[in-house]
Structure formats: structure tokens, C-alpha cells
Write a structure and sequence with these properties.
Helix 3 packs antiparallel against helix 4. Helix 7 links the parallel strand 8 and strand 9. This protein has two domains: 123 residues, 2-Layer Sandwich (Ribosomal Protein S8, Chain: A, domain 1), CATH 3.30.1370.70; 81 residues, Fe-S cluster assembly (FSCA) (GMP Synthetase, Chain A, domain 3). It has eight helices and nine strands. Helix content is 46%, strand content 17%. It comes from Cyanidium caldarium.
Length: 288
């Protein structure tokens, strides 16, 4: 009897040992599964495309303040940078250029930016602000001040173009007829020039923080007159852009176009003349 009992106990012990071993193995497997890093998924085509082609240039800075992020994007012009506040700047995909401090009086944001020492030009785009500087000033000095001006303006709720006083007409002008609006009096080739500018050329130039203003067409010579704005206005490669890019495209699609020439619009000439006179008067007062 004792022998049978011992045998039974021995078998029971072996069974418990097997059960205990199996339970430990299951626990070890569960722990390993929970703690082991999961195998990374293969990247999708969309993910590879997004990582390979960022929306902005690789060199950018994000600055948070009051739930607002401002990105900066480099342009082909080393003296111009795009600032993207993450909100709409100009409605209806329009642009507005401020080549001088005198012109900046139309908008409080542009006026405040011109008050930053070293800023010589401001341009509004649909979702960006291009700021141009003097060549002898470093961006590391200007960026913090420009960030502060842009952040303070957009968090204040102030209007980009105040609807009071002399600024009312300027606001209406900024939102009024576009330079590429096709008129009933436009010949077919002029309408095609405006359409090509609006749909193909301006969006490409805006990526570099600039804009192109249509100023007219010389029927006798077949020359399209354009004004470069923003980052393009003081860029050393703007002439290459006009000849190799804009002119070739227009000549390809529109036989009437023979050449493209950069000009300054009458409005810009007037503003530059007023600004030069104001600076001359200021210097004269300082030396008198």
C-alpha cells in the first residue's frame, strides 16, 4: 500500500512539475511579447514621398508662442526669407508688395517690420510674408525681432489693412482688380499671357517668396513687361529666371511673344522717388 501511495505521489509530483514548467514558459513568452520591440512596418509610398519632398526647404525654424507656430523658409535670394505664420495672410491668393518704407504706411504689419533695423522690403503672399534685408545685416540678428513683430501682430487681431482714414483706399486697392484679370478689351494673346502668368508662373515664383506683376505688352516688339517683387526683386538670378523660365514658356505657348523685359511699375517708381526724397530731406535736417 505504501508503495502504491509513493508511486502515486511521485506521478502527481511529476505532473505538477510539468504543469509548472509549461506555465512558466507561457509567462515568459507573454512577458517577451509585451516587452520586445515590435517589428517596424515597411514605409508606405506616401510616407516616403512626404519624407523625401518636404513642403518647405530643409532649413527652417519653428517658434511657438500663444498657440502659434511660425516657420521660415529659405529662398534663392540670400537676402530674403519667407516667414509662414500658419494662417492666411492675403485673401484670394493675392500678393501685396512694399518695396519702400513709404509704401509700408498702408499696412501696420509692414510698417512695424520696416522699423526693424536692416529690413528693406516686405511682401505679403497668400500664406507667407517675405522679408528682405540689407546685405550687411545677418539673419541671426534680424530673425528674433521679425518673429516678435509677426507674432504680436497676428495675436493682436489687428487688421492687415485698416478700414479707416487713408488706409481704406489702400485696402480696397489690395483686394481689388488683379494685374492678371482678363478684361473685355484684351486681345486674345494678352488674355493668354495673363492666364499663363496666373496659373503657371506666379505659383512657381511664390514658392521662392516672390511674385511677378504684369505691367503690359508692347505690340510692336512682342515684349511682355513684368515687375519682379518680393525675393525676386533684388535676386541676382532674377534675370536668369525671366529669360530661361518665363520667356521660354511664354514664347512656347504664345507665338506673339518675342521677349520678356523687367520693368518697374509707375506706382513703384513713384514710391521709390518719394522714399528717396524723404531720406534726402532727413539727411539735410540732420546736417543743418
Amino acid at each position: 500500500m505504501w508503495r502504491k501511495t509513493a508511486t502515486l505521489l511521485s506521478r502527481t509530483a511529476r505532473s505538477w512539475k510539468r504543469l509548472h514548467t509549461a506555465a512558466n514558459r507561457r509567462l515568459d513568452h507573454a512577458a517577451a511579447t509585451a516587452t520586445a520591440p515590435s517589428k517596424p512596418r515597411a514605409p508606405t509610398l506616401a510616407a516616403l514621398r512626404n519624407s523625401a519632398t518636404p513642403r518647405h526647404h530643409p532649413l527652417f525654424l519653428q517658434v511657438p508662442r500663444r498657440s502659434m507656430f511660425i516657420q521660415t523658409s529659405i529662398t534663392p535670394n540670400p537676402n530674403s526669407v519667407k516667414f509662414l505664420p500658419g494662417t492666411v495672410v492675403m485673401e484670394d491668393e493675392r500678393t501685396c508688395d512694399f518695396p519702400t518704407f513709404r509704401a509700408a504706411s498702408r499696412s501696420p504689419l509692414a510698417r512695424h517690420l520696416f522699423q526693424v533695423d536692416g529690413v528693406v522690403g516686405v511682401m505679403y503672399g497668400p500664406d507667407f510674408i517675405t522679408v528682405s534685408k540689407r546685405e550687411d545685416v545677418d539673419w541671426s540678428v534680424l530673425r528674433p525681432e521679425i518673429f516678435s513683430v509677426i507674432m504680436d501682430f497676428f495675436t493682436s487681431g489687428e487688421a492687415l489693412f485698416p478700414a479707416d482714414g487713408d488706409s481704406a483706399d489702400d485696402a480696397a486697392a489690395a483686394g481689388g482688380r488683379s494685374d492678371t484679370e482678363i478684361l473685355d478689351t484684351d486681345p486674345e494673346h494678352v488674355a493668354m499671357i495673363k492666364e499663363l502668368l496666373e496659373t503657371r508662373i506666379k505659383p512657381a515664383v511664390a514658392e521662392d517668396g516672390g511674385s511677378i506683376l504684369y505691367c503690359g505688352f508692347e505690340e510692336e516688339t512682342g515684349t511682355v513687361l513684368l515687375e519682379m517683387q518680393g525675393a525676386c526683386s533684388s535676386c541676382s538670378s532674377s534675370s536668369v529666371t525671366l529669360k530661361n523660365g518665363v520667356e521660354n514658356m511664354m514664347r512656347h505657348y504664345i507665338p506673339e511673344v518675342k521677349a520678356v523685359r523687367e520693368v518697374k511699375s509707375p506706382e513703384r517708381q513713384r514710391l521709390e522717388a518719394e522714399s528717396a526724397k524723404m531720406l534726402a530731406d532727413l539727411e539735410q535736417r540732420m546736417h543743418s
